[in-house]
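Researcher: I'd like a structural prediction for the single chain below. Treat it as a standalone chain; there are no partners to consider.
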Amino acid sequence: MTLISPIIEADCVPLSQLQVRERAVVHMTELDTDEREALSAMGLHEETSFELCQQGQPCIIQVEATRLGLSSEITSRILVRRCGVCN
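Model: Treating it as a single chain, here is the predicted structure.
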């Protein structure tokens, strides 16, 4: 039997704190329903892995082959887990 350790929120940071080229996985967000739905439609939802391309205004992330530009106000409310190797 394999045990998976639970995600500890202390391991999460706002997306706005990542460094360029850093990979992370979305853990949870503090966004309202409309914002979550809009981001989900663009491919960014819970457990999505991505790479940070550019920090600032806008913040640019790459989800698979798609790049998204996000405001700093949004990136400060999206919590992520840093990862060395993401799927």
